[in-house]
Write a structure and sequence with these properties.
By secondary structure, the chain is α+β, with helices and mostly antiparallel strands. It is built from 4 helices and 21 strands. It has 2 domains: 123 residues, Immunoglobulins (Immunoglobulin-like, Sandwich), CATH 2.60.40.10; 160 residues, Immunoglobulin-like (Sandwich), CATH 2.60.40.10. 31% of the residues are buried.
Length: 371
């Protein structure tokens, strides 16, 4: 009996220990008190606010802007993400207005992206980029005459909608007039980036220029294509010539600088001095490697006062107007409300060619390079 009593006591002790340590199996888990959360530190608050701000910025970049909106600062190319976004934007390579006033455009985009072509604030069609990232578009109806702007947007395979980093300002002739009476078609590529607000940064590029008048063979490919200037007085001249040669530029017979003609036949010069408003004479000499002036052109240049330019309101807050003239056209545009830029586009003309053997006051003579 004593043995049974000892066993009973041991069983009671084991049962008590079991209930003490594993009571949650029978009565459920013990109710926990509320855990107090520590208040975020100032650094954590700052990091959270920064993260929210960057999220809003990304949303702004990837959202498709309405066609009439021209963004000012498209991408910060100092960051990898900005560079990738800039590369993903659709771009122009070619713009042509044919004799029927139909538009032919081509450019680059992300492979398989759907590129929308927008004239003014109206989408006129789409094109899908090839596997190599090239797209081509031809309009189905003639363009209306006058000043027009062409913009691009793209819907990329990753779902992002992006706007082009540049737009095109065009002068479309009146196609109801006889061909011989029409003004030439002009197309100029204008960067949207803030850098274009200062002449000499990303300067406008002519995509379609007027055909030459008369026999210009004596010019040996020398042309002054355009003069771009702003209301601060900064000037940029650009044109074409024979690769390997150089040009010397004069304003009113005073030298303002020289420039090399690159391998593609292009030259560009930003003089180190401003030119006042009024009428001027531009002269460009083409100089061969031996230092001889082989061709020369001379053209009138009128720098207009800002108050003399009347702007037509175009799409996207960018005011632009093309004013036809005799062998030259003036384009005026407002750059994001910050100032004005003006471009004078010249048509190569037999009357511009001058005798390269004549000596002018102030003329620069370049000695041939020693072998």
């Amino acid at each position: 009996m004593r043995v049974f009593g000892i066993l009973a006591i041991l069983l009671l002790i084991v049962a008590g220990l079991f209930l003490y340590f594993r009571s949650d199996l029978i009565f459920g888990p013990a109710e926990q008190g509320a855990v107090e959360t520590a208040a975020p530190s100032d650094m954590e608050k700052s990091q959270s606010a920064t993260a929210e701000g960057s999220g809003d910025k990304n949303a702004t970049q990837t959202a498709l802007a309405p066609p009439k909106v021209v963004e000012k600062n498209l991408d910060d190319t100092s960051e990898d993400e900005g560079k990738q976004t800039a590369l993903a934007r659709p771009s122009f390579d070619i713009i042509r207005i044919d004799q029927n006033c139909d538009l032919v455009a081509a450019g680059r985009a992300v492979p398989d992206a759907v590129v929308a072509v927008i004239i003014g604030d109206r989408k006129v069609g789409e094109a899908t980029a090839s596997a190599s990232g090239e797209w081509v578009f031809t309009s189905s109806t003639p363009l209306p005459s006058g000043s027009q702007t062409v913009n691009l947007t793209s819907h990329n395979p990753d779902g992002k909608d992006l706007e082009s980093g540049s737009l095109v300002i065009m002068n479309v002739p009146d196609c109801s007039a006889p061909l011989e009476d029409r003004a030439p078609a002009i197309a100029m590529l204008v960067p949207k980036e803030e850098a274009s607000a200062s002449v000499g940064g990303n300067a406008p590029k002519l995509l379609q220029v007027p055909e030459a008048k008369g026999d210009v063979s004596a010019a040996k490919d020398l042309t002054l294509g355009s003069v771009n200037y702003d209301d601060k007085g900064t000037l940029q001249l650009s044109g074409r010539g024979l690769p390997g040669n150089r040009v010397a530029v004069y304003v009113n017979n005073k030298p303002v600088g020289t420039a090399e003609i690159d391998s593609e036949g292009n030259w560009s010069l930003v003089p180190d001095q401003s030119i006042p408003a009024g009428n001027h004479t531009l002269r460009i000499d083409q100089i061969d490697p031996a230092g001889k002036v082989i061709s020369r052109v001379e053209l009138p240049f009128q720098k207009a006062q800002p108050s003399d330019v009347v702007l037509a309101q175009a799409s996207g807050g960018l005011s632009a107007i093309v004013q036809p003239g005799n062998s030259l056209w003036r384009i005026a545009r407002r750059v994001y409300g910050e100032g004005m830029e003006y471009t004078v586009i010249y048509q190569a003309n037999q009357d511009q060619i001058r005798d390269p053997d004549l000596i002018f006051p102030g003329q620069i003579f370049t000695l041939p390079k020693k072998e």
